[in-house]
Design goal:
6 strands; six-stranded mixed beta sheet; 7 helices; 2 domains; alpha/beta
């Protein structure tokens, strides 16, 4: 009888030990109960409203800048006039606008600057830093001659900016300080409320598929 009780005790202990191991594994690996990251909003560029503006006749088949490449890899909407840009934005707010160098003269700069300052990511294809800075009315993009040197071929410049807060006076104060020092110095007087400011810029070659794949990753970073 003594032996049977001992076996019973050992069996109970064994069961409890197994249950404890199962519980530990479940808690240490909760991913099995979470939604896969690839299914979450904003997990791919197709989740964003991206518009590509270029001049009629400027499209070059086989180029990384070709409209077919942007449709395939970014699910971008290709347009050839500024009127079409406004129509796409009216259908659903544009989250990223790509401007080909050929379409520089088509841009409504006041609209673009406003869109940039409300958080729309702006990309220039073969437009250098100073040109993009002028388009979005942000001289800080060209600070320290960013992307000002000639590239041997095609390239991109991405600029994103976001400024917001509960108090408009605080927002204006932070924006004024940003424009005066390009974010290197705080405002003369600290804001009384919470203000969020985020500004980023990126540039690189865009001459082959590897370059374009790198561009896709950088654009996703800006959008997120």
């Amino acid at each position: 009888m003594k032996f049977s009780k001992r076996n019973l005790i050992l069996s109970v202990v064994g069961v409890l030990l197994i249950l404890a191991i199962i519980a530990w594994r479940f808690m240490s690996n909760p991913a099995s109960t979470e939604t896969d990251s690839s299914q979450r909003p904003g997990s791919s560029l197709s989740d964003y409203n991206i518009v590509y503006l270029l001049a009629d006749g400027a499209d070059v088949a086989g180029s990384p800048l070709a409209s077919s490449n942007l449709v395939e890899k970014l699910d971008a909407q290709v347009v050839y006039t500024w009127k079409e840009v406004l129509a796409r934005d009216n259908d659903a707010p544009i989250e990223a606008l790509i401007v080909h160098a050929s379409a520089q003269a088509l841009v409504d700069r006041a609209w673009l600057a406003n869109a940039y300052h409300r958080g729309v990511v702006i990309t220039g294809f073969s437009l250098n830093g100073p040109q993009v800075a002028e388009l979005v009315n942000d001289p800080c993009i060209a600070r320290d001659r960013f992307a000002a040197e000639p590239y041997p071929g095609s390239f991109y410049v991405i600029a994103s900016f976001l400024l917001g807060g509960d108090d408009s006076a605080d927002v204006a104060l932070v924006e004024d300080a940003y424009r005066r020092s390009c974010g290197q110095q705080p405002p003369a007087e600290g804001p009384s409320g919470y203000v969020r400011r985020s500004s980023h810029r990126s540039t690189y070659d865009l001459n082959n598929d590897n370059d374009f794949n790198g561009f896709v990753k950088v654009l996703m970073t800006h959008l997120r």
